[in-house]
Task: structure prediction
Amino acid sequence: MTPTDSIVRLLDRALRDLGDAGETERACRLAADAYAALEKSNPEMAERFTGTLHHLTCVPPHSPRDITDPRRAAS
Result:
């Protein structure tokens, strides 16, 4: 894996985490910018951000508390 591959993977994870933290619109804009920056010079890397956009727009929003708080599961 090249350093560029590592940076793209890191950015992908950060954008998904940003979306999961409730900043979906901001994460989508940044993912689209990343796609546009890479689409001509490295279409394979750009395609990773297509997946990021699908993740951000297809997964229902939730808060980390909804998943980890055992009191929520009991109610």
Notes: The two ends are 46 Å apart (CA to CA). The chain has one domain: 3-67. The helical segments are 3-20, 24-38, 43-58, 64-68, 70-74. The mean pLDDT is 85.
